[in-house]
Structure formats: structure tokens, C-alpha cells
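Annex B.
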Amino acid sequence: MMDIYQILKKLPHRYPMLLVDRVVHIEPGKDIKALKNVSINEPYFNGHFPNRPVMPGVLMIEALAQTAGLLSFATLGVELADDQVFYFVGIDNARFKRPVQPGDQLVLDVTLERSKAGIFKFKGQASVDGELAVEAELMCTMRRVS
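3-hydroxyacyl-[acyl-carrier-protein] dehydratase FabZ: predicted C-alpha cells.
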């Protein structure tokens, strides 16, 4: 399990781009379950859409990618140096099944499918109240930045 303070130590994202609030389960090399509490105070709701606010699909995918990043850190058992980042490098088979709106809790489930040559491939699903909202296959890799 990880609270927000542990997540902030692992992920470089900060408001408004930090999209994981808590990790409730993690098994390095296997899977992770995290939560994103969706609030009307999120800045994107002002324009998406004012009369019927819904969380943008790209941000649901980003929440899954951040969750996958946390699983990557746990799997490798490393702390990133200041010149290292995990980049989201690919997405396949993304499907959006239901809108996510203010007041929902997005449950993020990510499974590590494989790791080869420094590239991690994951299967991710996010649901609200047990109902699938989005699913996708994600890839990420660690890189040095200058």
C-alpha cells in the first residue's frame, strides 16, 4: 500500500497532472490496484463539459500509465536518479466504456504482462462501482534525460 506521500516520492507528476491518490495493493512484478478520487474541483471540468462534466479519456489513460509507472518502480526495486524518468511510450487497444464524472472513484487495475529489453508492457483497466470505464494495453520505459 502507498499513501499520497509515498506516491509523491515515486512519481514526478504534481497537481494538476498527478492522477493517483492511493495504492491499495501492489505485488511487484505482477499487479497493482490504485485509486483516483474524481472531484468537481479538477481544472478540466471547467471546459469538459460545463453542462455535463466528464473526465477526459486521455486523463483516464494517463492515470493508468502513472499506476503502471508505480508498478515499474516496485518491480525494479529502484529509486530513480534526478536524470531518469519513466516515459509512457505506447498504447494499444484503448476502449472507453462509460463516462467518469465528479464524485466517482476510479479504481485502477494494472497487470504487468511482460518486461523485455527495458520496455514494460501492461494491461490496464479502470472501473467505477465495478463497472468498466476504460481499458488499454500500455508500454513504458526508463530513460536518462539531460
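The chain has a mean pLDDT of 95. The helical segments are 4-10, 57-76. Further annotation is deferred to the next reporting cycle.
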